Amino acid sequence: MKAIPKKLIRAVSGTVPEGIALLFTRVALAGIFWRSARTKIEDGSVLTIKDTTFFQFSDAPFNQVPILNGDLGAYVTTYTEHLLPIMLLFGLATRLGALGVLGMTLVIQTFVFPEMAVWWQTHILWVAMALVLIVRGGGIFSLDRLIGHRLG
């Protein structure tokens, strides 16, 4: 079998292909948390939290999360699940946003759905995407890049 030409390897591992891959990773991860956030909001409103959301955070399994149970948990989780995807989508403080998503994923896995099946089916993918963004940043198609380029 013939080795892959070095020119092809350089072409697919350049700045633009990496930027496209990071953009897709940001959009995919943001979409997961955005859709979850929108389930906690009254239909037709921007950020009015549903009564059922407050109930969820006062009832098991959500009340198992230290500090973030009750109304505080509903507010913090709902608003964080809205803010972090926006940061990821636009690539604004991408590493910080991905770190927040990683933290939320670990809390969800540890306290809400501790079954290992959930880890292997879903959460490991979220963690992998978050880690890629933490390590590589938002890429060239991000506000991070634009702001960093402007600031030198």
Structural class: mainly alpha
Distance between the termini: 46 Å
Quickly count the helices: 7
Strand content: under 5%
Overall form: elongated
Q: Care to count the β-strands? A: 0
Radius of gyration: 18 Å
Low-confidence stretches: none
Query: Can you give the helix content as a percent range?
Result: over 70%
Topology:
Elements: H1 6-12, H2 15-38, H3 51-58, H4 70-90, H5 94-112, H6 116-136, H7 143-151
Helix pairs in contact: 2-4, 2-6, 3-4, 4-5, 5-6
Protein model, in words:
It is a single chain. The protein has one domain. Helix content is 72%, strand content 0%. The protein has helices spanning 6-12, 15-38, 51-58, 70-90, 94-112, 116-136, 143-151. It starts with 5 loop residues before the first helix and ends with a helix. 24% of the residues are buried.
Summarize the structure.
With 152 residues, this protein is an all-alpha fold.
